[in-house]
């Protein structure tokens, strides 16, 4: 800053200090404009890319994405302490926030270490140490997304995803369903339960289909719809109240069907309602 | 004003001023090499490269050979499994974004902060930051090719940018700057892999070489600005304590990444002692190397002596 230059006393435009103040303001405005633009660009860029792509899964214990992006300093300590080389840091060009850790289940899934070394290694709390049971992790949610190519859905027995699941029979079960195609076989449909699935990705990794997997771990945001909070679920209300809120259904006699079970309105061939008396409009009913 | 009697000795022909008079490309430091020998005339530069590359090596021997001396990167690291170190610039961003980190990161940040408060904030720039290798290379090539001029933004831009980085973190609730920060990106890239970040590093090199001399470190880098602010009261300082022997060859100005910090000390502009107290001085010691008259030395901020 050479203040000496612009104090030329003969300057007609004004006195030295006033002039240099004006120049400072002009400089500052220019600088602020340039820096502002750069910062704005950075902000927009980060905004635009901050929705995690479907294939990128955060490590166990990761805070909700927005908080995670405030917390993770991109040091890679979690990456270093993962014994299975599951995690990697995003590089510029990946559509994950530059430098933040993630994994792709189809490449290397999370092995769900009991001591969760990645969480222990994180110095910032981006991976929350409140997670002490790996079974409580919710890295994502497996979804059997392709029912046309899944071998079990075709009526074959594959079951690989089911059998590799570390939370077998809780996170993923085989549901027995009649096979309408052969009419004499069963289909065993791999079915994921969100209350137990950790999103480790072992099912996706091991799916036997070449190339893409029929079962995929998705970020919860994509895997689940939002709850319809404005609907009451009768069965839940019932369980909570210890019984039906509306009481048992009233049973009214149905005229002419008195001998039948309530609701059974089928009428057999010889079983026309006995018309007492003459035919016609008058049924002969008396109060 | 006994500080600097006019000692107009013969200016060496290859020095900045000598070359300018002859209209040739300057070779700053040639006189120093002649007077002190090549090694002494490169002492601080070599020490600095050893420090930069040594620190980098500590981070690299893990991934390369499996010797885990240091894990992580400059953002946050763990040395020998016990010593946590964290970049306080990142903690500042985190705080702005509304996250309070775990104790490890805070302790690590405190250690780093104390170190640079004591020794000089921008020592980070000269002695640790890997981008310095890039910008030094650009500056060297620029001198070699005799490239002159350029369009540099105001040196204050970095402080504005630093402010914006923090405001941006607060506004987006995320470490938005770290999406593009070339400093952390370069270091992380060397250790964890680059992707397209080479483009950003190359961009800085060519920006410094062709557009703005010392444009990145000296004018834009918010991380350098942050450390500059930290180091305002640092102990370790460069002193022009033999300024009376200066022959105005201008070599120190040519090699200094922040040449504006030299004038007050060397020429006594606005101060009467020979200490470079400006927080922008990176304490790189290159001025000590290239001065054929041995004007500079490393000293402390309490030492105002002059000889
Ligand atoms: S739980 Fe184990 S395998 Fe999974 S990411 Fe963490 S360290 Fe890696
Ligand atoms: S250890 Fe924590 S702060 Fe470091 S990269 Fe992993 S999640 Fe981010
Ligand atoms: S100014 Fe920035 S890029 Fe340059 S050395 Fe310092 S921290 Fe590194
Ligand atoms: S004054 Fe010297 S030590 Fe300070 S930045 Fe310039 S050359 Fe480096
Ligand atoms: S201090 Fe040394 S290098 Fe700088 S102008 Fe004077 S003689 Fe030249």
UniProtKB/TrEMBL annotation, chain A:
Residues 1-21, 261-287 are annotated as: Disordered. Keywords: 4Fe-4S, Electron transport, Iron, Iron-sulfur, Metal-binding, Repeat, Transport. It comes from the Bacteria. Residues 1-10 have a biased composition (Polar residues). Residues 268-280 have a biased composition (Low complexity). The keyword ATP-binding does not apply. CDD domains: DMSOR_beta_like. Pfam families: Fer4_4 (PF12800), Fer4_7 (PF12838). InterPro entries: 4Fe4S_Fe-S-bd (IPR017896), 4Fe4S_Fe_S_CS (IPR017900), MauM_NapG (IPR004494), RnfB_subfamily (IPR050294), TAT_signal (IPR006311), TAT_signal_bac_arc (IPR019546). Residues 62-92, 99-132, 188-207 form the 4Fe-4S ferredoxin-type domain. One of its GO terms (molecular function) is metal ion binding. PANTHER family: DIMETHYLSULFOXIDE REDUCTASE CHAIN B, OXIDOREDUCTASE. This is Ferredoxin-type protein NapG. It comes from Parazoarcus communis.
Automatic annotation (TrEMBL), chain B:
InterPro entries: 4Fe4S_Fe-S-bd, 4Fe4S_Fe_S_CS, Electron_Trans/Redox, NapH_MauN. Coiled coil: none annotated. The chain crosses the membrane at residues 53-70, 111-138, 159-177, 189-210. Keywords: 4Fe-4S, Electron transport, Iron, Iron-sulfur, Membrane, Metal-binding, Repeat, Transmembrane, Transmembrane helix, Transport. GO terms for cellular component: plasma membrane. Signal peptide: none annotated. The keyword Cell cycle does not apply. GO terms for molecular function: 4 iron, 4 sulfur cluster binding; metal ion binding. It comes from the Bacteria. The keyword Amino-acid biosynthesis does not apply. Residues 236-267, 272-301 form the 4Fe-4S ferredoxin-type domain. PANTHER family: FERREDOXIN-TYPE PROTEIN NAPH. This is Quinol dehydrogenase ferredoxin subunit NapH. It comes from Parazoarcus communis. The lineage of its organism: Bacteria, Pseudomonadati, Pseudomonadota, Betaproteobacteria, Rhodocyclales.
